[in-house]
Specification:
It is a single chain. The protein has about 230 residues and is an alpha/beta fold. The chain has one domain (about 10-190): HUPs (Rossmann fold, 3-Layer(aba) Sandwich). It is built from eight helices and five strands; from the N terminus they run E-H-E-H-E-H-H-E-H-H-E-H-H. The protein has helices at about 15-30, 45-55, 90-95, 105-120, 140-155, 155-160, 175-185, 210-225; strands at about 10, 30-40, 60-65, 125, 165-170. The longest helix is centred in the middle third of the chain and has 15 residues, at about 105-120.
């Protein structure tokens, strides 16, 4: 395809620990990043503020926020009036798909990234999915990513006529949270800029008890690195 920059890439940027790490990895590998975030009807905006901070930290000048509304369907503790699970252990987290799963969210996000990639054009998409710490999410698993990549190359002009295949990059998919944090620190990620909590307060402070907070705190502990997160309870 004429004008294709083989180092141009879309970064799905949530403002969380994982997407910040993926952005730092992609930047270190020489990719020219175009960040894409979503205001999708989530119950708090702390992660969008974090995404703006992380994009600036990574030196990304092209950062867009798509407006969609998954509250239309609900069905998740992140978009609906459903309690966020708190105080669960690893066995409970892995026992079933949690209520914080947003139906088809990563499918929707990747579809938007694919549209953006076609227009740029760019054949690389980076996403911070992880199948180790949160195997309960069906759209964070390797088979889903592989299937979406196959579909992307069948359903787009870029995939059919481009000089090379569209690739979905998931550099964290087989890493533990501790391994992710160590890698991010090696690439200079400032995790104080990020937000992982599913239930932060109006000041953006983490609850310290939801699944994401527990995994984040345990990850820093296992990595032997001080956790810079501001929790509203000790």
């Amino acid at each position: 395809m004429t004008g294709l920059d083989d180092k141009a890439a879309i970064l799905l940027l949530s403002g969380g620990l994982d997407s910040a790490t993926v952005g730092a990895i992609a930047r270190a590998e020489g990719y020219h990043l175009h960040a894409l975030s979503f205001r999708y009807g989530q119950r708090h905006a702390a992660e969008l503020a974090a995404a703006t901070r992380v994009a600036a930290h990574l030196g990304i000048t092209e950062h867009r926020t798509a407006e969609i509304d998954l509250r239309l369907f609900g069905g998740s503790a992140l978009t609906d009036d459903i309690p966020v699970p708190k105080g669960r252990d690893a066995e409970a987290m892995a026992s079933a798909i949690p209520s914080t799963y947003v139906p088809a969210r990563n499918t929707v996000f990747l579809a938007y990234a694919l549209a953006y990639a076609e227009v740029l054009p760019a054949r690389h998409i980076f996403i911070g999915v992880n199948a180790v710490d949160f195997s309960g999410y069906p759209d964070c698993r390797p088979d889903f990513i592989a299937a979406f990549e196959t579909m992307a190359n069948l359903a787009t002009r870029l995939g059919r006529e481009g000089a090379a295949r569209i690739e979905i990059h998931t550099p964290l998919i087989h890493l533990t949270k501790a391994e992710i944090i160590r890698r991010g620190v090696a690439f200079g990620v400032d995790y104080a800029l990020t937000v992982s909590c599913y239930d932060p307060d109006e000041r953006g402070r983490a609850c310290g008890a939801c699944d994401a907070c527990i995994l984040r705190r345990e990850g820093f502990s296992a990595a032997g690195i001080a956790d810079p997160t501001i929790y509203r309870t000790p």
